Amino acid sequence: MGTANGRKSIFITGAASGMGRETARLFRQKGWFIGGYDVNADGLSALEKELGADNCVVRKLDVTDKTDYEKALAEFGAATGGKMDILYNNAGIGVGGFFDEQPFEDILRVVRVNFIGVLNGIHSAIGLLKATPGSLCFTTSSSSATYGMPGIAVYSATKHAVKGLTEALSIEFRRYGVRAADTLPGLIDTAILPPGTADRAPKEGMFRLIQPIEVAKIVWEAYNSDKLHWYVPEEIGDLDKAAGNNPEQVREQIVQMMAFAETLNADPKKQ
Ligand code: NAD
Predict the structure, then answer these.
(1) What pLDDT, in 10s, does the model give residues 106-157?
(2) Which of 155, 176, 223, 231 is catalytic?
(3) Does the beta carbon of 64 sit less than 6 angstroms from any atom of ligand 1?
(4) Closest Cα to atom 30, ligand 1: which residue?
(5) pTM recorded for the entire structure
């Protein structure tokens, strides 16, 4: 039967930090068996210590490496008796700055981790998900998948891709009884935020600073639901609706919001 010993199991990428780590802790409290994967080996060791070696399998994994991803899944399957109740594609990186000013290799890296990494995971794990009644394929998208965000254009594009992929797979995977859903978090207090962001965050509104445990709770709720998109906080859903109904108006709101609105509006003749 393997180390999981009949317990429900969740495979989490980006588990060494932030939302992934909080999700691992919450599901452990609920009695689940945890698979924790990340490029951060120190963070994984700390996680393993906290969860207890009998309650988890942790392993270094770069989600961009499909071959190694398959090996990690085979090891996880050996520990769970070929089952996986949740695949949580959560690993992600953010690189900020104007699109045209970024080295092209940095742009490709964001696509590889945030989107190809998700494809690697789902394509390799579908066998385990299919073998597990009521399983869920869950992915971290972002509030930046509501409207393309300047300053993080490619990050935002990868999160749109994740959202579209989830919608399509939530229909395709019905033939296996596997659900697909995602979360679109606003501003979450984790290491991915550029230094100083947490201090500058608005005190209220949809982009107020939220603790990563709130996203972990959403993963738990999602397992017990058939809802497709989980907005954290819920008001991000209003932004999504507005962007769908009137993208030009939302575009102007975002221009107003951005700290560099002045640069965007500058008269090129005066530069
Ligand atoms: P985080 O930096 O605390 O956690 C991300 C984890 O992913 C890190 O432990 C990192 O080592 C890991 N990782 C990076 N590249 C990897 C790779 N190639 N393979 C495996 N692991 C890798 O940040 P977080 O906020 O908890 O991020 C989790 C997810 O949430 C990301 O997908 C991020 O884009 C998304 N997100 C974050 C926010 C926010 O405000 N923090 C908002 C919306 C979406």
Answers:
(1) 999 999 999 999 999 999 999 999 999 999 999 999 999 999 999 999 999 9
(2) 155
(3) yes
(4) 140
(5) 0.95
